[in-house]
């Protein structure tokens, strides 16, 4: 069987709606698909005071069978006097199960919202959840600390930027998800961190990307695939441990990520190109700003976020048919053992190194993980200060530089870590500073080294210079390596640098889709302003989650376009961040540790609030290891470079061959469009999506291209004053939401003035080259004529045009039979005017296909073949004509 005739599809969960039923002795969780034709049931024992007893019979019921089962349970409880059978709540999924010092609770999703689509796969944001206590009151064993633990756990606001999907694996990148599985492991142990050796990497080029364009081939084989999630980016893994031990059917399990998801539509003359930004926060060594710095001994760094920028043609949504591109970059604290003490009331606490790591073991563990996930090269962009009177940030830079220098000694030259420093704060000083230009140069150099992922071969007419990445003729291009950006906090400077990288990448992605010929994009175009808005939201969200306030220094701050009135808002955000870090960080850290299972309450242990530090929760005792200090990477990783080890060893836990792509478990088209439901056009997600024309293009313009520089000042959507008031604070803890929202809301009027001042400053910048004094404002200058704006104007029609129109109207009336006799009219006799052929009888239900000459069909087919395979050899007659032309010159 040809490899191109095998297509892998992600398995769609058959449980997307649930209902919780209650009896005295049990909870019954009934799950169904969207059409409510397939059902499954979980029984939860309520008579166990402290243990979780789950029973999944693995049976799939029909609607009639499930109704009979419910009726039987209800009748049985009535006869036994069990207190009846009632429905408790309707839900959309299970977050997990949690236990403190009494019995177990189940956390259920009660409200969701669609925030993005990747092909036909929908990404949901959790809007609301509920916790249900499982044991019955008759067996409940009370504990005095239970209430406090419950309140602490509920400080984790699950409605603040937690995401999931029923069909798309959010914990992995698009490149990994479209990679063909290499091995089958029926029972994957999620607690196992050991990797399988790679002895042969030759098969990568032939099967790195799944899917095929040969959908019409009758021999095409379709497989449903379920892969293992990446534990590092799954935030409810601890809550699912008991469900995994009970061996529930995989459709019950939802793997939830935390971070940011945003999507916008670039409308290129009616062609929709979706730009999606997905940020995944690491669940390892997670915490708040000053309590989580550096890394632990396993190489997990603080504030690690993987950001993926996807761009795809929304006209066709199948992975196997449409063009999808993606680029992955990351941010994370400098891998070392350092901290900033919050004991003194100072805005910038001193940086201290806890202990030095001469053999860079911690940094080696971190970069080994990056090589495993992304391949080589790793490009580090270090943005900390390089010159200070008193060494502070420079201490971290020296630590990172020495670690990279040591680790590079043992890597082959072609796979060595690329280290780049850029003192962003110093370069931003001065009126003529141009930080964005320097960042653009660095971004282009880094992006061309690692490339982008593209699931299709390049267009025949695409310039070779715009194709980057490990290029494969049959399967598109791959990203090999990662761009890692950091400053001290990995917040303000890092977000601006990541935007500069994203802007550079967007040009190459649009070239890959055939939208642009050149990857160069200019600022102040609708396209780039929309991308800037996405990265601003991305940065604000991550800053609130880690630092307790929104971004202080924004992209326009480094572009030197921020108005002076924004300084007041910057001060408020700084104070908000300082207050959050000083007074509420410890409570937020305790809640995160409890949610992620870093700390698990036990009877004979002190409660979490009595610990003065959580250092030993995250830094486990070091186990003596004989691992070499020179071979700091895992065996097998070096063999796979420059490709990612994880791509080469991708395993699937479930592989099902189906007879057709229309089978419900893999039919993403039906799952997305839902033809069995009534759709309201006003509620269609595509129309609610941020659009470059509706939200970013000026109201009065004749050029609809999103790549045109707008010289006319317009207010940006992302700068409207209502945004700060309506934006949901995405902090993971409810406490920081209060302070940061208050600070941003109180400056709403400042934001409005800021927008106006920016408009005026932008106008002055454009007209600064003109020495003449400004023209007086007149009514005519405020309301230009139609001729001045559109190049045409309305005029009264000529007499000849009016006569022609009257003839047309009379002919219409006569043809319809509404006019039996034509009255005398000065337009002259109309009897000589008649229809040359019968009117077309086409309707909205059927259309008569036009007759196309064979010669025209041959010309069109030849045109298509030229686009696919290039030009044809000219005919003999054409060659003779060309030879006569050449000899005559």
UniProtKB/TrEMBL annotation:
InterPro entries: Fig4-like, SAC_dom
Region (Disordered): 712-777
Top-level taxon of origin: Eukaryota
Record's subcellular location: Endomembrane system
GO terms (BP aspect): phosphatidylinositol dephosphorylation
CC per GO annotation: endomembrane system
Compositionally biased residues, Low complexity: 731-749, 761-775
GO molecular function annotation: phosphatidylinositol-3,5-bisphosphate 5-phosphatase activity
Keywords: Hydrolase, Membrane
Matching Pfam families: Syja_N (PF02383)
Annotated ranges, domain SAC: 153-548
Protein name: SAC domain-containing protein
Taxonomic source organism: Callosobruchus maculatus
Highest classification ranks of the organism: Eukaryota, Metazoa, Ecdysozoa, Arthropoda, Hexapoda
């Amino acid at each position: 069987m040809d490899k191109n005739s095998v297509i892998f599809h992600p398995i769609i969960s058959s449980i997307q709606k649930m209902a919780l039923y209650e009896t005295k002795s049990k909870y019954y969780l009934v799950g169904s698909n969207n059409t409510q034709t397939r059902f499954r049931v979980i029984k939860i024992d309520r008579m166990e005071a402290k243990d979780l007893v789950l029973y999944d019979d693995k049976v799939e019921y029909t609607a009639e069978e499930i109704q009979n089962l419910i009726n039987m349970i209800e009748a049985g409880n009535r006869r036994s006097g069990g207190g009846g059978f009632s429905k408790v709540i309707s839900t959309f999924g299970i977050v997990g199960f949690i236990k403190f010092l009494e019995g177990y609770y189940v956390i259920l999703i009660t409200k969701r919202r669609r925030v993005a689509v990747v092909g036909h796969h929908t990404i949901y944001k959790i809007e609301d959840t509920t916790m249900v206590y499982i044991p019955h009151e008759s067996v409940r064993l009370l504990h005095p600390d239970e209430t406090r633990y419950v309140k602490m756990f509920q400080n984790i606001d699950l409605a603040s930027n937690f995401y999931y999907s029923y069909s798309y694996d959010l914990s992995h990148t698009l490149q990994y998800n479209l990679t063909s599985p290499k091995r089958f492991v029926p029972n994957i142990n999620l607690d196992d961190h050991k990797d399988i050796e790679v002895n042969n990497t030759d098969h990568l080029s032939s099967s790195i990307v799944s899917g095929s364009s040969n959908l019409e081939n009758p021999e095409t084989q379709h497989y449903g695939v379920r892969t293992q999630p990446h534990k590092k980016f799954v935030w409810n893994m601890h809550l699912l441990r008991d469900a995994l031990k009970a061996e529930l059917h995989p459709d019950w399990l939802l793997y939830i990520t935390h971070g940011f998801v945003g999507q916008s539509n670039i409308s290129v003359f009616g062609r929709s190109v979706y730009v999606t930004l997905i940020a995944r926060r690491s669940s390892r060594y997670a915490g708040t700003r000053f309590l989580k710095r550096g890394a632990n001994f396993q190489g997990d760094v603080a504030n690690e976020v993987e950001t993926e920028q996807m761009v795809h043609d929304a006209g066709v949504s199948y992975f196997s048919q449409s063009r999808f591109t993606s680029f992955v970059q990351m941010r994370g604290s400098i891998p070392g053992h350092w901290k900033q003490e919050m004991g003194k009331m100072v805005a910038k606490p001193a940086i201290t190194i806890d202990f030095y790591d001469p053999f860079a073991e911690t940094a080696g563990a971190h970069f080994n993980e990056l090589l495993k996930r992304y391949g080589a090269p790793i490009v580090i962009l270090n943005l900390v200060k390089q010159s200070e009177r008193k060494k502070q940030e420079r201490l971290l830079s020296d630590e990172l530089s020495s670690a990279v220098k040591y680790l590079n000694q043992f890597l082959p030259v072609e796979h060595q870590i690329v280290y780049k420093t850029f003192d962003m704060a110093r370069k931003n000083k001065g009126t003529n500073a141009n930080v964005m230009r320097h960042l653009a140069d660095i971004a282009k150099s880094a992006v061309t080294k690692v490339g982008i992922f593209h699931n299709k071969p390049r267009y025949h007419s695409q310039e070779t210079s715009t194709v980057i990445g490990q290029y494969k003729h049959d399967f598109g291009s791959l990203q090999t390596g990662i761009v890692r950006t950091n400053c001290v906090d990995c917040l303000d400077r890092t977000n601006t640098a990541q935007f500069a990288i994203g802007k550079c990448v967007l040009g190459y992605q649009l070239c890959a889709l055939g939208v642009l010929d050149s990857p160069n994009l200019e600022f102040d175009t609708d396209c780039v302003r929309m991308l800037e808005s996405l990265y601003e939201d991305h940065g604000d969200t991550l800053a609130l989650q880690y630092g307790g306030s929104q971004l202080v220094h924004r992209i326009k701050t480094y572009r030197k376009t921020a108005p002076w009135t924004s300084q007041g808002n910057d001060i408020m955000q700084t104070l908000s961040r300082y207050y959050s870090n000083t007074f509420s960080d410890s409570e937020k850290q305790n809640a995160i540790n409890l949610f992620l299972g870093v700390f698990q309450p036990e009877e004979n242990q002190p409660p979490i609030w009595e610990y003065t530090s959580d250092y030993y929760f995250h830094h486990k005792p070091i186990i003596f290891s004989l691992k070499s200090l020179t071979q700091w990477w895992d065996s097998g990783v070096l063999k796979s470079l420059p490709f990612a080890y994880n791509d080469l060893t991708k395993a699937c836990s479930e592989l099902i061959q189906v007879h057709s792509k229309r089978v419900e478990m893999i039919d993403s088209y039906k799952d997305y469009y839902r033809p069995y439901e009534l759709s309201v056009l006003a509620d269609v997600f595509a129309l609610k999506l941020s659009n470059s024309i509706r939200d970013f293009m000026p109201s009065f313009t004749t050029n609809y291209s999103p790549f045109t520089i707008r010289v006319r000042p317009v207010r940006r959507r992302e700068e409207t004053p209502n945004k700060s008031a309506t934006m949901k604070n995405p902090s993971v803890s409810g406490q920081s939401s209060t302070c940061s929202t208050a600070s941003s809301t109180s400056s709403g009027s400042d934001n409005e003035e800021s927008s106006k001042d920016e408009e005026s400053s932008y106008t002055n910048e454009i007209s600064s080259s003109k020495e003449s004094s400004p023209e007086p404002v007149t009514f005519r200058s405020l309301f230009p004529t139609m001729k001045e704006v559109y190049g045409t104007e309305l005029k009264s029609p000529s007499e000849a045009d009016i006569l022609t129109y009257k003839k047309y109207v009379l002919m219409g009336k006569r043809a319809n039979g509404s006019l039996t006799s034509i009255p005398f009219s000065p337009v002259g006799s109309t009897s000589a005017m008649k229809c040359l052929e019968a009117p077309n009888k086409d309707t909205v239900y059927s259309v008569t296909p036009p007759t196309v000459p064979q010669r025209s069909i041959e010309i069109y087919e030849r045109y298509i073949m030229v686009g696919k395979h290039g030009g044809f050899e000219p005919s003999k007659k054409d060659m003779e004509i060309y030879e006569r032309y050449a000899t005559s010159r």
